[in-house]
Amino acid sequence: MEPRMVGPGPYRATRLWNEIIELFRAGMPVRKHRCRFKSYDRCFKASDAVDILHELLGSNQNFGPEVTRDQTVKLLKKFLKNHVIEDIKGRWGKEDFQDDGHLYRFPPSSPLKSYPKKPSCGKEIIKFPDWNEPKAGTSQEHIPVKSISMNSEMWYKRHSIAIGEVPACKLVFRRELTQTNIEEIWKSMTLAQLQKVLGLDSLDEVLDTKLVTSKHIVQNVYNVNKQGIVTLEDKSKELPHWILSAMKCLANWPSCSDLKQPTYAGFEKDVFKTIIDYFDQMKEPLLTFHFFDVFVSVLGLLQKHSKAVEALQISCLLLPPENRKRLQLLVRMMARISLNKDLPPLSESVRTRTLMVQAFSRCILRSNDEVDLDELLAAKLVSFLMDNYQEILSVPSALKSSIEDHVVHLHRVQIKCARADTDATFPPPSFCHQISTDEFEYQRATGSQEPLAALLEEIVMNKEISGKDKKKKLKQFQKSYPEVYRVRFPTPETEAVLFPEKTKQKPPILMWALKKPFQPFHRTRSFRM
């Protein structure tokens, strides 16, 4: 069985658990072993199981080569507890697995987990602001959209530019958006973009959108300092000064500006342990229990680097501001410590980067239900965070610009024309439904050509305008809508009927025109009689 990438979606942790079990059962060789003068068929040594599973996890793109042997042993302990394996006497249920020569075997029953039936969170449709106050007790489940009756008069006004007329218009200013309106817009568009990046039909199975606080998103975007770190309005939620000083000391080692220089060997290890103890005592991880499934789903995108970064950017905007700030400071410290060659080793047996991941993974991501793959999933996410923390923990500029442009659009004035059926601005966005090709063609024909045909007929039958103006308007209409014009006037003869030629009368021949050209007067001799 070949390993495959488990993509985003609901129950990703359960799907990963089942896949690892199937891969382990298929790849773990079993044979006859002797123990205390007795032979046991189809079993394996504990140390062999660690070797096989460690290699399997390291080569699996869902976990990667950073999985340690110690983490592999912990996973095998969970296998023993959940009856994925049992000892040769059939005992299981305890996490007493050791990396030694004890013998284990696979039970005959299937150890795969069934997918839990999560209660539906219910789809929450985020409203766009309505310019009219909603009546008390009215349902706000759907966005109110003003229906538009497209008659010929409206088409005449809407397309008046094409026929050379612009009716008198006036500006109508919209009501000011409230802060609540803006926050709800941020929440709606942020969740929509997250769903798009994850490639899910709905966020319902990975996130209860009712638990997303719109105010947190806006604060995380705008309340930041020059370094992009969140600034908190409630100063009581800040990290204690002594923890900040300890984190700065290790992050900037050996330049400890807030602490005096160490006076004894091992000082840096004591400072590091102090930081670990503080974050370990937190009751909830920084990414919160509510967003566990979201971040586990994002792990399915790690092979698509840019999408994974964008998904994590958006997901981290949903966090409470105090959690986001602590995450920013902690991950930045971890990354700097891992790259600081001047800092003495903080462990004799583990590399500094691996130590950072092992020490802080649990305080960053874990499930409230203690999912069996918590530690491995958290380690994978934290490793990616450390490598890309500057980009992930910054505000996504494209999303910010998109939402700000939308808010500016909603602030703009409307153009309302005299006797118009509706405002010149477009109606509020509504949810679309897919239709068939035939229905689309029918709507296109009946929804646009019929009103235009009626408008053309109005121009033709209008007796109040002169023939010259009528020709001008018809020519402009033909240029703008040639297909509609061709239906009404298929041949030049049908067009010529509108403008019959008048018989031209020849002007009367004047008598003076027949006379010879003017001759100058010549004096003649007179004869007397």
From TrEMBL:
It comes from Onychorhynchus coronatus. The keyword Transport does not apply. InterPro entries: DEP_dom, Rho_GTPase_activation_prot, RhoGAP_dom, WH-like_DNA-bd_sf, WH_DNA-bd_sf. One of its GO terms (biological process) is positive regulation of Wnt signaling pathway. GO terms for molecular function: GTPase activator activity. PANTHER family: DEP DOMAIN-CONTAINING, DEP DOMAIN-CONTAINING PROTEIN 1B. Keywords: GTPase activation. Residues 201-393 form the Rho-GAP domain. It comes from the Eukaryota. This is DEP domain-containing protein 1B. Pfam families: DEP (PF00610), RhoGAP (PF00620).
